[in-house]
């Protein structure tokens, strides 16, 4: 008997420092709907998703910036259908003043066709929006390792 034969990622929960700021960011970039929220002063949270499907939960219970030098979440990646959708998201992110790891849409590796944009949310959590094709013929920003591995 196989363990968890139909295993799928459910949702991702993120600690944030300012729930209102992060909610606005994730809703603008990903067009998420608010599915539920907690408004108690010391227990603020929000559930975000689409079509009633929970995708991201935000919990206001942290301080500082997400550290990249400590164990934990490396990055959170979202797949879209086309590189045009990646570019549209990039424009939204530029309008929000997001910090990018690389300039423009980049492939996941040398001679790769999948690729996207790599950026940080307001708390420094590393994110990616990518498409399975359309990132070629650009050069990969790192050689010998996946672009999403060391940014």
From TrEMBL:
Pfam families for this protein: Glyoxalase
CDD domains per the UniProt record, alphabetical: VOC
Keywords: Metal-binding
Limits of the VOC domain: 8-132
Gene3D superfamilies: 2,3-Dihydroxybiphenyl 1,2-Dioxygenase, domain 1
Keyword Metal-binding: yes
The protein's name in its UniProt record: VOC domain-containing protein
